[in-house]
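Progress against Task 2.4 (sequence-to-structure conversion) is shown through the following example record, which the project officer requested during the mid-term review.
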Amino acid sequence: MASLTVRQLDEGLKKALRLRAARSGRSVEDEVRTILRAAVADGLGAASPTAAARVTVPVPTSRPDRVLLVIGGGIAAYKSLDLIRRLKERGLAVRCILTRAATHFVTPLSAGALVGERVFTDLFDPEHEFDVGHIRLARETDLVVVAPATADLLAKLAGGHADDLATAVLLATDAKILLAPAMNPRMWTHKATQRNLAQLLADGAALVGPNEGEMAETGERGVGRMAEPLEIADAVMRLLAERVAPVLANRRVLVTSGPTHEPIDPVRYIANRSSGKQGHAIAQAAARAGADVILVSGPVNLPDPPGVRTVHVETAQEMLRAVERALPVDVAIFAAAVADWRVENAGRQKMKKVPGLEAPTLALKENPDILATVARRTAQRPRLVIGFAAETENITANARAKLAQKGCDWIVANDVSPQTGVMGGDRNTISLVTADGVEAWPSQSKEEVAAKLIARIADSLATAA
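Structure tokens generated for the chain above:
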């Protein structure tokens, strides 16, 4: 008996199970699970340690978000190995399905080593499917990611096919599906592929990519490259964040974002390298949390976040006026990199370079301190005023000093030295400085920083209520 496995359950035992199920009013599948789990507890299968793992999947009461990764059969499948690592870095529990075609590009062994558990490949695996495996895979996940999503997979999913494990799970799941397409540019632009994609998006699937670039085939270039693993991981985190409860419902949140442009003359200005990505991500995260969000944005090359009222400004003075018009709010988050100075007498005409004359001297005047102005208000002061400290040295010390000088409640401090790539980049490493101390956060995408900051804000407001 010690060597008995699921594969050895014969027809006689199956008939007995059906009879027992009929008498108890339970399903055959429930009876199978009961017997197998009891057998594992009694030591059945001790000679085959993997047998228990194949039929029992513990579900902890407190668990990380679960992602099921479906790897399709394309050359981009090799990127999905890095995607597994990126997802696990974010604290997600990852399971993996390989299509038969995918096994020509990556092996179950390599994917399994990264996932840390068995990788699934076969719809008709008797050891797995006897426990109704494809249904459990479909149900026991919070998000399904298909990467690469080949033209064939898109067609099957759009048509409702279920002829292998991957398509059966995709058809059986009620979790959100994120598609990361990868294929030849001509396949991507083909009417059939675009028709299938339109159907899938109408059915509620989400999309990341494809990107433009060189293809695996020599001389082929265009739209069809699978999105990079970091892009997909960021999209995963955004979709998972959308599942959270509206913790900021009935709250008004003000966010400033981007640089300001201080004119020298009609064609030149003083500015900084801020992209606005962090501020826009915070506004979006607040909106997802149910808040009524006003975003005051300096000049950026970003779309307005959906569900957010965006006010566009150019200068620091314009930003201050827009901020004051937005009051009262519950929370004010000043993520904009406002220029400290402006030109005192900006030229009305373009300043011309005249040979033989020295370069003109620019007289600078200090700009208004928007953070301090709002933090020190006696009327209509937000309950929580949060500033940002973009520093290149002595990060924590400078942030502590800024917290005291400005009169705000929190400071989000980060290192913006050129080597960090924070200015204009997609990731950020911050420390949250409050009166209670300094909390260092790990390097994360700017969307993850935004989601975590909004969660902290919600907790603070709930505690103070």
